[in-house]
Amino acid sequence: MKMTRRMMSRLGQWSSYAFAVEFDTKSDPIYFSLNAKKSKEVQQVFKNVDANERCYSLHVYSDDNFQRARFFGGLKNKLLKELPSECKVAEMSAFQPNVRDSVMRGYFLKDTTKSSVTERLLGELLRNDPVYVCSYLCGEDSGWTQHLWSHTEDGRVEASETYYVEPAEKPEHHPSTLNIINSDVFYSFDDAYKVLKQCRDIIPESKDVLDLVDQRLESKEETAFPVIVIEGLDATGKTTLTESLKEALGATLLRSPPQCLSPWRARFDAEPPVIRRAFYALGNYLTAGQISHEARRAPVIVDRYWHSTAAYAIATAVGGKVRNLPQAGSKVYVWPGDLLMPSLVLLLQLNPQERVRRLQVRGQDKTTEEEELEANSLFRQKVEETFQRIQGPACITVDASPSADQVLRQVLLLIRDKCHL
């Protein structure tokens, strides 16, 4: 009953939501809105949906970010496993344009089977889980209506509200950008810590990570020696360069995420984004403590830091093309106010063909995101563009295509110029 009251409190705003269906991840979504009254002129919305296909949508809601993320993370597998194989599943979202944290992620279903299995499964989800369920009908005039389902106290499912579906203009901000802050990227220690604290009963390893974080070294805003971060995609030469800089400058070399988190990385890599990102955000604060400690007596070189954490998270979260990224100057690119800031950040860049060749030669195991970089040029472009947009400090680009010695000389010149070493 408590869930029903929560649902009812949101239903009054339902017609203010816009919807985006990602039928093709390489193209813009199809946007539509709702109207309680039928327009005089019927406009086609779902051009790639046949009138005889049964269509449905599910929208995951919860005020608890942890519950919402975990449920959405497992929902697609459940749908693919239990729906008829002919039923097509596409990602979609319901959102209030330009309203932060308003996005409800979900799925759009196209079913040609006329099977009762689909509606039975959707009814069970509506009764037992934090989802809104809608069905869609195409009228004789080719206009579509959306029917919002509800369930009665005796457990029956019925369509409680009907709206007319209308095409909507593409919003100023891609909907996937509205929930980035503190869901995909964290901007304070407390916000990341809070997520793992919520997980302790379900993910026992969270307690071990929090115990480690509680013992972290204190980080100070000012360091006695410069801190230089080397960023870049895999196989751009970061490891070779950082080792060489360590020798050339008599510096301490640190890597992020720190080695102390290694026992739990595979566990958290399997979790939904909000949990995985909070884990890696805390890794940055552990690294910051190490940097502050080591920079008392020597320069510090860091192999990856917050730029990587943010760039991969934003590129993964934002659907579609590079133009869908938040605009330059957006808050999502601003360095966390409580995280130790480096003196200089250098971004190694390499043409895609050479980078892939180096990856193949290296032959090491790759993370899911690294595999995505190799297979998906669009994702790589989004990561690279996000690196360039991060502020305070911004990245200085370094061409990593010459020999290792030439790159080292170029970087040493930059460090001596910017850090006066």
From TrEMBL:
GO terms for molecular function: ATP binding; dTMP kinase activity; nucleoside diphosphate kinase activity. The keyword Transmembrane does not apply. It is an enzyme of class 2 (transferase). Gene3D superfamilies: P-loop containing nucleotide triphosphate hydrolases. It catalyses: dTMP + ATP = dTDP + ADP; dCMP + ATP = dCDP + ADP; CMP + ATP = CDP + ADP. GO terms for cellular component: mitochondrion. Its main location: mitochondrion. InterPro entries: P-loop_NTPase, Thymidylate_kin-like_dom, Thymidylate_kinase. It is found in: Mitochondrion. GO terms for biological process: dTDP biosynthetic process; dTTP biosynthetic process; dUDP biosynthetic process. Pfam families: Thymidylate_kin. Residues 230-410 form the Thymidylate kinase-like domain. Its EC number is 2.7.4.14, 2.7.4.9. Keywords: ATP-binding, Coiled coil, Kinase, Mitochondrion, Nucleotide biosynthesis, Nucleotide-binding, Pyrimidine biosynthesis, Transferase, Transit peptide. It comes from the Eukaryota. Belongs to the thymidylate kinase family. This is UMP-CMP kinase 2, mitochondrial.
